[in-house]
Automatic annotation (TrEMBL):
<dbReference type="Pfam" id="PF02620">
    <property type="entry name" value="YceD"/>
</dbReference>
<dbReference type="InterPro" id="IPR003772">
    <property type="entry name" value="YceD"/>
</dbReference>
<feature type="region of interest" description="Disordered">
    <location>
        <begin position="134"/>
        <end position="154"/>
    </location>
</feature>
<protein>
    <submittedName>
        <fullName>DUF177 domain-containing protein</fullName>
    </submittedName>
</protein>
Amino acid sequence: MKFTIGQIKKNAYNKPFEFDDWVNVSELESMNNDIRTIDPVHVYGTVYDQGDEIIFSFTIEGEMILPCARTLVDVPYPFEIKATEVFSESIYYDDGEEEEEVHPIDGEVLDLTPLIKENILLEVPFRVFSNDENVTSHAPTEGEGWELVSEDSNEKKIDPRLKKLESLLNNDEKEK
């Protein structure tokens, strides 16, 4: 989602400039996070031109698929994020403004897409749980190097390497 400085100055001269668009953020799926899939997000808001500062006030709406913390099944997670980003044209940009998250303008185009992705990543919940009653039937029960063992199905399984020792124990019991 890109805006040119000229477009903003022209459209936000007397009143706030409104925008409404869909942004593809599927790149977030390949990053090292819990997002399994994410559809294009709906971004809408207003742009204010206040002297040397350009202020974007916008809302990001969408849905991402995250793993359930208990069973690892897919859980749809709808979100709505309200954000404000400030860009400064001032050549007197100091360190105090850096702490306030003011972005310096470099060039003639403002790209809001990295900031949209950043806001989405900041809002990913620590863990989600599925509300489905039959979630255990959809959950994986084994994988590479692991297997789910419950108390009901916990039978005595003998390691095949120790199978011959079992026969020796059975012979000892018969002799007594």
